[in-house]
Known about the structure:
By secondary structure, the protein is α+β, with helices and mostly antiparallel strands.
Amino acid sequence: MELFTCEVNLGGDMKNTVVLNLVTAPELEVLRRVHGHDAVWGITRTGDADYPDNDAERETLQLKYGYEIVNGIFGPYGKLPEKLSELKIPVEQVIAADLPSVTTNIERKEAVS
């Protein structure tokens, strides 16, 4: 499951913004439905997680946001989205959907005494 960092305008209020880390793809959709479709922005993919499985993530979201909200968005059963590409999020709200490349070649200089 893909993980993200994003900024959320709580209740759609631009003056009341929080930064969330380790947000899963289904949680992005819940946040968009709760706070407004344009309230979640600055979405940056930060990695992948082997956890949680579908049922564990559904349970976590239900405990965090309520059964009615989660079941209203995704239905009571079924597979949750695992990738950003499965959500209909406008590109203007996404900073980086791909992981940044990591440079493995590090140039080392000798210490000068």
